[in-house]
């Protein structure tokens, strides 16, 4: 067993022993039913080797982590024009806050809060029907993960749709400002399907390789290296809602969390990392997931702020 | 002339040609009088070589860049206890906003907005008289810069004190919540003196070496490598006020700006960089300074999100 | 012609000469098409005499004035339990603001802003189907006005429904907090029909008699005198959105405005007054309507703050 | 004993029996030491008869009730120009909130919240020295109360000054926007002295006569009847901080409360009323004071919304 495998195993061991695990999301039944004691970790190195521990093969609902893939698709579709409709700044407020939209005229702060990701979906629907956009997303994730078995959990998607009143409020509110163009129901239907992607830590870490490797995955170019750097920058600034500064402080890694308890983190040039533990902290980020990444960086020195040879 | 020198010269050339230069801060006369056409850049490499161009030897008022040094001193004095009195999150609002303090009970969002830096000063005054704290700061900056000629501009300090009503409001407001302990006037007197440090790009880039080199400067340890990484993380998340996400997106570097038009940026392990141009954008950051750093990263690949060899 | 008739005629004359008339609401075509030069006034005295001038017989869209009638019905249905779901305080913000709902957990500030009136509709739907609630409203307004010709303008109702994204946002947002119980579409359908009542100044002033006469209308009791006083108090505090304090200051009368340009005002014990002019001020209240009421009070001394004999 | 005397005695009796009395203000020692079981009431009728019960002769700190007298003086000094520097709208937030000042550029919402009253003091200092302004206030209150024994409690004034950090924040903040002209310390010194007026219920009710009697007091004109109506309107809209709507709903009287537990209420043309009980509700208004006024109105029908003969 090599060094990284040993580290990954140690971390899984340590996390198993933690008593405080946060609170599992309970706003929809399919998420509330996930056992709180799950923990998985997968690390894909630049050379393609994969190291996993714990429940790394269990699929879970990636939820807001899908916002990274949706942003990638939208930048592919319209390029920097996207930034006319969504900002690039941390929000300074909760993931589903509506306050900022009022004072900033319906322009969400960044593509990684709910309002921003809903605009991103609307941008994709500028060229596609919802069914096509959902199909495009699924093909994209399967492609970057190199795994055709990834699916969307329709039970989760339906449950989101039945209870997503805050998201309906956000979408209608932005529509009132003219920043949603397609019918609100179609935009949200697309958005909820994206959120309902079910992936394991292994699949998620595989999918994140293009962000680790300057836009490359399996030897072909998914996006430019410049765009990869920029998406990483956004993940660092805005990837953990109103807890992003703290996550950057503790880990020094770009990362994106979801209320399903997953986190995708990137050590540029080195590794793509996925962790999963369903219990959340008060900001809606995986409590043990953040802790596991903090430990990983302590043991490996993968922080982007680590001095490096040029 | 080596590669970096050439790049630095090119950038200075390009900046000189820019027409749009932002708006020079005018809230105190000593800042308003600075010529808008100034531009300087200094790059200190890990090996100690220094590359400068433009007005790199002109001293300017570093203003909020001093918040980085004050934070370093406060962490040295009280360690992580500091975080009980100030947060680590981007503010999502202007540098001098008071709104967040009301809803968050007098705890400022981070040490790089005015309210946070005022708390940092108050922490230093827990052990020192104002005169001592100002002396300690001056000694610290001279030490890390390796330059005994650095001074505090008393004319600027006095002008700040005469007009700093918003800062007085912030300090009194936090005092009402019990988050300022020393008399408000002493805390602000200290704060305004810190802001009034006058340094050239060369001096500032020299001073930033410890943040570039894992806490080391001139062969001795200023702070631990862990603390250096963390300060860099905070600079990336919060160093440009409500424009921090955009700066990270464009440059991929930790940086801290001041309304004097200076920016200190860090490429960990590679270089400490200072730029200066007095014209500011609407968020209070140097317009050309940000642009110069964006160019520098484009030409050198120094973004922390650039894939690197392990 | 008696004194009041003369005053009413003078005011209509004066208003006709005003150059600055405000801005006609243009968010739906049926409102945007109303001629800006319309002005009507009707005063119903306690003894039943009616004084009108100008376009007092033209029906217009009463819009938010219907919130007074909806509140009357909801208090009749559930009494003071209503106040568990909506407050009694001026909002300090715009009529369609969503900010306050986030910090106050989905409880709108008062029943005269949009969010509050939507909750009032939801309360009515606790016992009735939308069609029944709309029928009840129509019967109520016809009864208090003593006029069976009053109708709901279906063209306006449909236009509201097609463009009411902010109201959809408000309703979904409150539903997320559990403060809307019926399906959002049904609640809003009801709300938009209430807003689309078409009434003339004469009809509106007649309808307001029960608020002028301690709850009595045409010799029978519509509501108790205590409830009439309280509804008047709410109209005084909250009846002109974020302009309510100024309206109270200028007129000293309880009143409720609508974006159709109408205002219903009450001089308790003396008169029920309706004015109409489509041009609005920046807070969404009829510019000339407010001015006309100010003049009326100057000429009659009907302010509730006028010293009176006991 | 006549009818009003009997009613006043009954109310004092009933209040004595109340268990829930609110929470005595404790931010300065002189207020914290006031016994919680105090209750006083005084009613001055238009004919000059005075009815009192309970602790109606005990002096207490009138605190924010002084804002009514300060407004009267400022309107006397500069007339409607005052409204360029302070609004006339309820604030929708707490009495000492600073949030609104940021979004509304240093213009406080109304003269009855702290920020607004501080501006009113600054307006008075446009023509007078602090000592003169304090002297003018004392003479004014003595004159309208017809009582030369009224004093300012210097112990309270000093305690306010030592702890008034929020007020210092408000004043400095408005100064930063240019809406405070005199030195902040002088403005606050004046403000704190106004707040420290010590008056009994009897004295306060006597002082309020000019607001009850169309601006007349003791047969001479203090202000015009129009100004008296307008001040009453402001008291109704804004006199109980973020609880003003509820107070209007329950009592139908213009009133102004202070954190010392006093309330001055006005039944125009009928009576000037003062109540006092130190326990406060969560909005900072006297709990029993509000209840006593509610009872008084129930027993007398003095609500301004009571239908009246013309």
UniProtKB/TrEMBL annotation, chains A, B, C, D:
Its EC number is 3.5.1.2. Pfam families: Glutaminase. Substrate binds at residues 64, 114, 160, 167, 191, 241, 259. Keywords: Acetylation, Hydrolase. GO terms for molecular function: glutaminase activity. It is an enzyme of class 3 (hydrolase). It catalyses: L-glutamine + H2O = L-glutamate + NH4(+). It comes from the Bacteria. InterPro entries: Beta-lactam/transpept-like, Glutaminase. HAMAP family: Glutaminase. Belongs to the glutaminase family. Homotetramer. This is Glutaminase. It comes from Novosphingobium mangrovi. The lineage of its organism: Bacteria, Pseudomonadati, Pseudomonadota, Alphaproteobacteria, Sphingomonadales. The gene is glsA.
